[in-house]
Amino acid sequence: MSNLTESEAKIKKWTTEEVHQWLKTTVNIPHLYADKLLEEEVSGEEMLYFQKQDLLDMEIKHGPAVKIFTYLDELRRGSQHASKYPAYVDKWTKEQVCNWLLDKVKVYKQYTDRLLEEEVSGDCLVCFSKKDLTDLQIKQGPAVKILGKLSELDSELGPELQTPTHFKTDPEDQQKNHRDSPVSLLQTPSAQTEPHQTMGPERTTVNENRETHRMLIQYLEELLKNDLKKFTSLLRDSKLTGFASIPHSHLEKKDRIGIADLMIKHYGGEALQVTLKILKQIDHNDLAQRLERNMGEMAPLNPTAVLRREANQGDKLRNLLTCGGNSLDHYDRFVVVMNTCQKEQVENLEFLSKLKLFCVLDFDPNSAAPGGVCSFYRKSRVANLHSPPQFQSEPEDVIKNLSLGIQTSWVFCNGRHDIDCEANKELSYKEWFRTARGDIEQMVSFICKPEVLQSRRSLVIFLLLSPVHTDKDAVFDTFMTFYSRRKGENIVSICESQSTFDKWRDMIKDKCDYDITKQAVYLLTMSEINGAVMTLGPHNQPCGRSLPSSDSSSVILKQKDEDYMTALDILCENQCENVYDEKSKDFQDHKIKMEEEFYRGGKAKWWNFYFSDQGKAKPFIKRDKYFNVMKMVKAQTKDPRSACVLLNLFHHPSCGGTTLAMHVMWDLRKEFRCAVLKDNTLPKPEVARQVETLMKLGQSEKSTPVLLLVDDSKDAENRDHLINCVRKTGEKCSSTDVEDPANSLVIILNCVRSHNPKSQYQDCAQESQYITASLTKKEQDDFEEKLQELKETHTKPENFYSFMIMMSGFDEQYIAGLVSHTLKDFNIETKTAKLFAFLALLNTHVPESYISVSLCEDFFGMKFWGILVKDGVLDRMEPYTNLLIIDTIENQGGYKAIRILHHSIASACLKELGTRYNICLSDITLEMLHCDLFFKTGVVKHTLMLSIQSMLIGRCKKDEDLRTQFSPLIEDIHTQEGREQIQAIFEKASLRFVESASIPQALARYLYIKVRDFPQAVKWAENAKNITENPYTVDTIGQVYKSNLNYNIQNETQKIPSPDNLNTNLTIAKNAIQAFERAQELANKQDTCVNDPEDNFTKSTYSIFGYVGMIEIIITVFEMLSSLPFFDVANLEKKRHLLGFLSKSISITTVPDINNEEYREYCRIIQEHKSFLLDFYLKAKVKTTFEICDGYFTYIKGKHFGDFETRNRKKISDNFTKYLKLVCMSSQEMREERQKRTQLNLSIDIEERRMYLVERHADTFAGLIQHLDKTAEEMETITEYYGFLHKHSSSTRLDKINLILSNVILHLLKPKSKHLKSHQELINLLKQTLQDIGMQHPYPDPYYLALLLFWPSADTEKTDIGTYVNSIRKSSQKHFVFRRRSTVAHFYLGKERGLKRLVPKRNLDECFMKISREKLAALWRNGDIFKDKKIRDRLRRVHGTIEEEQVFANYDTMKIPVRPANPGVVRSGFSSEKVSFYLGFAINGPLAYDIKYES
Questions:
Q1: Are 518 and 320 in contact (CB under 8 A)?
Q2: pLDDT (mean) for 1279-1307
Q3: pLDDT digits (tens, 9 = 90+) for 388-427
Q4: In this structure, are strands 1387-1389 and 1473-1482 parallel, antiparallel, or unpaired?
Q5: What does the alpha-carbon distance between residue 1011 and residue 1179 come to, in Å, rounded to a whole number?
Q6: Is it the case that residue 131 has pLDDT exceeding 70?
Q7: CB of 724 closer than 8 Å to CB of 1482
Q8: Using an 8 Å Cβ cutoff, are 876 and 860 in contact?
């Protein structure tokens, strides 16, 4: 077909859909045949090659085939079809054609039957040629006669045709020519009424039968010959249909219309049900599904009923989904249960993407396949695909693992055809009942748990897209399970047809005597349902949400992309635009509502900033610090030093700090991609991944900077982890956006509540700003101006109490007056007053606390059955409603909760209740603890329980590390009411929080700190340990004993303790040491972080607190012993007796004067405690503990050290001084000893030098490293003494190791000292030492020296340095000090040679003498110190590789493993890359700093 006519060229361009449309409209053949060509992918190009036989081969009947070919042939020639016969012939039905042939043309009936079978209607007959007729086995004579008779027909008046009973009527012809319809078959004489007659019941029945007959003919007509035979055979078999059979003799030789007649006569109104069942039996599912829908869509004949149906069902659907409103916000979550869906229904299920779906229980195994509902949903939204067994675990674990409430869970309840495996096959009902029903029941039970979904705040929708014929159906069983678990509450049925609903309703009523009609929608089409739901609020932006992009462009943020970023609340550059018609009443109502909520005390929303930007509105009030924060943020983009920057904003509670941060973000939304971190407890790597997604979204290679708001991140460890994870992500992005690294910048704006924001700002090392509760004059003027605007747009702006409090400058008198007026006639006996008092207590003492609305409804005993409740919680809270607000809580899947408007109002309410009504804090607390409802299982109840627990035990931060002794509530009750009430509160709380060790632990602390009731304190501390034994609970026991011991000693009336007191105190000391030792042992064993449950400002580990406690107690024991007359350390001889006794060289019974009568009782007591005093090796134990602490403070990175650790360090230092005085010989005492024992001068010299080293912490490896920060003169003496010991005594391996290190340090401090050994001497000595100890030494010290002396360079001999790296890693891991902690490098690899290549950290720090210690620490922490030229000039950059995320330093053929100092900079993906870095030497191996990828 190379030479196409113009018409053929046009046909050739047709798509398959255009061919399909042409056949349905122009040719006007039955849709069944048009669909066949579409299924066979016949486009215009293929059509040009078609002949009539090609159509017949596709099982298209002869009549339509001739018509299609005739129209096509004419179209090829460029002409339109024009019949040469009268127009009325085109309108003849197949039956009328046969009637004309029999009556007028007089052909044999066998010919008419053939034409009828081949569906030759009038519009087909006019296309027939003689050959077309002969192809149907009609002889030449009759064929010519038929065509001749057609030509003779009168062009105006057609023949009168009567359809005999054995012919059927075409339904479309019935509509066109109702006068010719065979209604006589369906109407009785009594039914022949005039058009104006009223239609009675009999007429209705006739019309119903007529409609049934019409539909029967329509569907029988579409059956092919073989299928029709199957159909009639099943009509004869009652076992297969379930209905009475039609006798074979009646069906014999019946055509389609005859079969329809018989079925109407035999089955009446059930004829369609019989047809439906048989169509399914013969696998004509497409026809069966269409018939099923049409049966449901048979509209009532009464026009007024039609109108009423549309109004009632549409309103009913809206009311059921919104609880009487216009928005889907009423329910927190929806659960949808759906059965098999037809492909043509899918496009009408778009409304699923608008619902806040918790989960979908899908019984359609094809749903995830292309064209299925799940697949359709996932095109626009995120759904995680699950199976029922995945819901079988603890609720918190399942919710977390499956991301329930965050992303939609799509659960396949009977197989998945898109995954071909045995576990996903579709089951018959019997198989499903036997193997899968239990899993479904458990899953439904899980969903119905109050801690998972509140039944009153969630709606279960049964979406029946196909009929449920029997109660032996998985969907029906699932309904019954939901009905049982939820007691029928908030379950709605949406059915695709009335017949489906009727059967569904009847089955449910038979099973549980419950009529679901009021909770069902069944007279709307799926298209109507979809349209109705899509019109409900909340509304989306029609043009899409956009984000700023590179080159001043924008990209669209798709809903699906936003679904993936579950941790982020994303602020778009066109936020809030085009959501409403801004001239409409809806917009004005929305504006008034949002402004009222905010200015009353609600949290700021983006709408509040949008309104202030519009039209004549006054701008949003800019606090004075707005410009400082804006400048601080913008400055980061000019010369970014890091991929992630932390900026802090410290603020008083409820003073607008977070609102200020949001205001800055709003004004920067077109420059940055802005987001708020929704949940600060999420895993930080996941948050970083989502930030990366936001940064790169819609851009293939470039990035856009991100501004991330983190609200109230107190935990420094948590915050640093987030920064490291985000920095790693940002640096990965910056490597691809080399044009401008600022595009890959992430700025974290961290809002921190503080009672002293200015002080925290001054102490903070990072860039920061602060904002307080006081207003400047300009700010006050701005508030006054805003108030005038609010008076113009709102009825009572004076009731916007949060705004008024801010405007008054937090005036206490204004707040007190407001509270006093509201709380008049307060009666604590009423439920309303009690709940208000509970809120006041919570909101005063716990930030961000609230009580869920559903819990309040339970408290009031309110019933809620899925209809609009006019009598809501706020109504029940009158007359206190003006002080309350309802917030939406996004966590735990989202729910509504109530709180008092402002922290200062809540605090003033408590004060008013106390002074005016004598209602004590303890009264409210105990009443709250007695309320059983608050302590039952449930997600929102669990949140409330956490708030109550925090109120009882949460201690406030005074500064970076110092906290109050108890929670503010306990402190207040102690001050106002005393011990009894506090003990009663904690005892009641311990019964409520039976699995929490924190409550008895807090009571124990209260009893020993405030009351000094040590026996009771020990009892409660033991109770806490029995609940959970961890370092903190065991440490509390030690602290009780320590406090008891100190209390006893302080209250000792005499300088020398009495024997009884000594006995008691030694027992207490033993118990204390055992507790501290056990606490430290637990901490050392734990590989993961252990958080103090009682500490809401947790540290990453227990650290060395147990060791500090042990030191304090042992030194106290030494002091007790030295206070005894026969161990008086002021007397040198008696001191020797004490030292001899502690070292077991003398017995207590041999101590002079011990047998004196006054000392005999002391002797007995010491003998009784001999095992404790001697077998515990107290002196050796305390010395070892001092050394461990020394190592901790020397080797561990300084970010762990705050004021608390500083105080610990001072305690250790003070006790070390006491240790030297009490149980060590001082230098003066040594000199006295030398004078008395001249023959032992060398021994005494050795001992004196060793004592000097001990006194100066130079007898340990860690202590020597500390001398890098001390004087060269002292280091020279230490080195000299080690040289003396090496020469004059049998020096130990430790002495040799310390000798080498002392020489290395002295080389760096005083390189010309005469006491130095040469570099080569040190190397030889170290080689000899390493030869002796091998590669399995328990301490890393010798291998550390190997790194310092043997690290490869041009002037060092080659050694297997990698072996020493492996050994230092293994040995350091054996000690808890280094486990899971970041170590600090004390030496760095410089550019010089020999020992001068070792650069002490102290020398690098000296380059920054002018900045504060905190800022210097921050430079080290974020790596910015290596950007300074003075540092780069001193250090050597080492080249290496990263392979499988492991860093190596490369020297020729050597690859030395190195740990990254900041693991976050190593890119994920296991890519092998060349890198360079600076090298530091830490006690657990070499560290790589400032890693740069050479690519």
A1: no
A2: 91
A3: 999 998 887 888 888 888 899 999 999 999 888 888 899 9
A4: antiparallel
A5: 33
A6: yes
A7: no
A8: yes
pTM: 0.70
Decide if 1386 contacts 1342 (C-beta within 8 A): no
Helix-strand-coil split of the chain, %, nearest 5:
55, 10, 35
Per-residue pLDDT, averaged over 433-442, amounts to 94
Check pLDDT > 50 for residue 883: yes
Q: What DSSP letter does each residue of 765-794 carry, written as one string?
A: SS-EEEE-S---HHHHHHHHHHHHHHHHH-
Q: What is the DSSP letter of 164?
A: -
Q: What is the 3-state secondary structure (H, E, C) of 539-555?
A: CCCCCCEEEECHHHCEE
Q: What tens digit of pLDDT does each residue of 725-780 get? A: 887 776 666 555 545 666 778 999 999 988 788 888 887 878 899 998 888 888 88
Percent of the chain exceeding pLDDT 70 equals: 89
Is residue 750 within 8 Å of residue 647, measured between CB atoms?
yes
Considering Cα of 1196, then 1197, then 1202, then 1206, what sign does the dihedral take?
Answer: positive
Q: Which of 93, 96, 103 is nearest to 149 (CA)?
A: 103
Per the document, the length of the chain is: 1495
Respond yes or no on whether the N-terminal peptide bond of residue 879 is cis (omega within 30° of 0).
Answer: yes
- pLDDT of res. 1248: 87
d(CA 846, CA 135): 92
**Virtual CA dihedral for 839, 840, 842, 845, nearest 10 degrees?**
170
Cα angle: 1139, vertex 1144, 1148; to 5 degrees: 80
Can you tell me the mean pLDDT for 572-579? 90
- Quick one: average pLDDT of 826-831? 94
pLDDT of 890 reads 73
Bridge partner residues of 360 (DSSP)? 336, 410
- Is residue 746 classed as helix, strand or coil in its secondary structure? strand
Q: Going by DSSP bridges, is the β-strand pair 1485-1493/1454-1460 parallel, antiparallel, or unpaired?
A: parallel
pLDDT per position as a tens digit, 1338-1384: 899 999 999 999 999 877 778 889 999 999 998 888 775 656 678 89
- Considering only CA atoms, give the Rg of the chain: 45
* Whole-number Cα distances in Å, 1201 to 1081, 1089, 1264: 21, 17, 20
- Residue 740 confidence (pLDDT): 60
Which run of H or E residues covers position 1454?
Answer: strand 1454-1460
Closest by Cα among 905, 898, 788, 795 to 844 = 905
Q: Is 1144 left (phi over 0), alpha (psi -120 to 50) or beta?
A: left
Burial (CB < 10 A; 0-12, 13-18, 19+), residue 1380, is: exposed
Number of neighbours of residue 1466 by Cβ within 10 angstroms: 21
